[in-house]
Every structure is written in structure tokens, then in C-alpha cells.
Amino acid sequence: MFKDTMPTPAKKRDQRPSDGEKVSPDPKVPRHKEEDHASDPENMAAASQASPESSSTETNSDMQEIKEMLVVIQGQMATVLSDNRKIQRDLETLKESMNVQDRELKQTQQQLAKAVAQSELLKKELDAALSKFRKQQEEIDSIWCKQDDLEQYSRKNTLELHGIPRGAYSSTEEAVLKVTTALNVNVRPEDIEISHHIRLKHSEAIIVKFVSHKVKSLVYKARTRLKNVSLTGLFQDCPASSRTESNRIHMCESLTAYRRHLVNKLNTKRRNNELLSVWTMDGKVFVKTSPEGSPIRIFCDEDLDNL
Predict the structure, then answer these.
(1) Are residues 274 and 262 both part of a single domain?
(2) What percent of the chain has pLDDT over 90?
(3) Which residue, among 3, 298, 284, 18, has the nearest Cα to 155 in the 3D structure?
């Protein structure tokens, strides 16, 4: 490049003496010869001819170098302008993308607001439905309790006898009269409204309904005497194959399915030594946790957890 090989015009101007600067004579050339040489007409003419050519060459060199610098600057400017246009396009694309995202964000916010409003409405409807459901559940529980009470009331004169095999008696009424006689309770055939055999989940029993609640209560209160009564002693004709292992007769009140469920759970606790005793009286379920404790009435499963 001309930059590296040729001196710049500034450098050339620096090499020429300034107007106020004196040029020292060459020590190798005698002074009179320099004066003669300068005063020589031929030399003066040659110098006058060489000066315009030298000045023109320097001017052309400076112009060429300026042109090259302008070309470089123009190239750099073109690159900068190209980069600026690219940045401008990227910026416009980014702005458009941001506008799209802003519109989507606003749309999403509107949808979210609608969803929140709808959720609040559904929550109110759900709360109303739950409130209505709880009221209905309370009504159902109340109706169910009343139904259970009515069913148990219909069983108030009824007892169940467990542990007597079917082959031990010819009729259920005969078996009932034998048991009441063993308990020293005076029961006549006319005191029995109806009796029959029933098959339970894990056993069989005789169910007997007395004419009056008074007779039923007398028989039920005497049930503790069954501890001294054996099956074979009361039913001597009972086949050996149908005898129970305990050889005992058990008496209980006829309970509804739910109250029977409560008694079974309580008896399990009693066998695990968690309770002292479990019994029923006129369909009401009672427990005792200690000899000194008072009887506790059990109404539902939740009461079992509070024992």
C-alpha cells in the first residue's frame, strides 16, 4: 500500500525547511561553488523546470492516497449502514413480536379474569350445593334414626335364643317354654305371640315375640340364670352331632342391623379387655368401662371412639 511505502504529504512538507528556517550549506561543497552553481543560468533554468514537475507528483500522490482513504471510508460506511439496516429490521421484528406478545398477554389476562369470575360463581354454587347437601344429609340421618327407632320399637317384645340346635326340639314354642321354665319365669303358651327359627350370618337362633312387654322384660332380666343351665341338661334328647362346643344357651334382645353392628364392635373391645361389660335394655346399647364407672349409652360409631 502507498501508506507503508510512500511518505505522506505531511512528511514531505516536514522535510522541506520552513520560511524562517535557514538551510545550512553542505560542508563538502565549497561556498563559492554553491554560489556559482546557483547563479549559473543553466542551473537556474533547470531548477525552474524541475520544480513544477516535483510539485505535481507530490500533489498526485496526495490525491491518490486521499482517494484510497475515501474508498476505505466508503466501504466502512457501507458496512455500518448495512449493519444499521439489519439492526433496524431486527428491532422492527422485535417490536412486532413484543406487540404480538402484548396482545396475547392482554387476551390471556382477559381469559383469566373470566375464568376467575366463573370460578367464583362455581364456588358459590358449590357452597350452596354443599349447604343443601348437608341439610339433606341431616334430614336423612334424622329420618334414618327415626326409622331405626321405629324398627327397634317394633322389636320391643322380642327376644332371641342362641345355642339351641334345631334337632333338640319339635317346635320353637316348646323350646321357649323349656327355657323360661329353667329361668323360673312363669310363661304360658298364650303369652307367646309368635316364635320361629331364623338363620343369622354366623349362627342360627329362635326368635320369640311375647304378647306383652312385661312378660318379655321378666324373661330378659332372668337371663343371668342361664349361666347355670346347660344345653344337654335342658334338652336331653338333643343329638350329640348337633350340640355346640360351649353347651350353653345365650339370650339377647332382637336388635336392628345397625344396633347389632354396634354391639358386635363393642363385644370385640370387651374381649380385648378394653371394656368391662356390654348389654342392651329395650334396644338401648350400654357399656361399662370399669366397676366403679357409670353405664355409658352408645348411639353411633363415633361414640365408640370416645370411650
Answers:
(1) yes
(2) 58
(3) 284
Question: What are 246's three cell numbers?
Answer: 360351649
Q: Find the mean pLDDT for residues 206-223.
A: 95
Give yes or no for a contact between 180 and 234, defined as CB atoms under 8 angstroms apart: no
Distance CA(187)–CA(174), nearest Å, equals 11
Whether 246 and 183 map to the same domain: the answer is: yes
Which contacts of 195-203 are long-range, i.e. CB under 8 A and separated by 24 or more positions?
A: 196/172, 197/166, 197/172, 198/160, 203/162
The answer as to whether 62 is a domain residue is no
Which of 109, 128, 154 is at the close of a domain?
Answer: 154
The 3-class SS string of 204-264 reads EEEEEEECCHHHHHHHHHHHHHHHHCEHHHHCCCCCHHHCCCCCECEEEECCCHHHHHHHH
Domain membership of residue 36 (yes or no) is no
143 is in which domain, residue-wise? 95-154
pLDDT tens for residues 114-139? 999 999 999 999 999 999 999 999 99
* Digit-coded pLDDT (tens) for 161-187: 998 888 888 899 999 999 999 999 999
CATH code of the domain in which 228 resides:
3.30.70.330
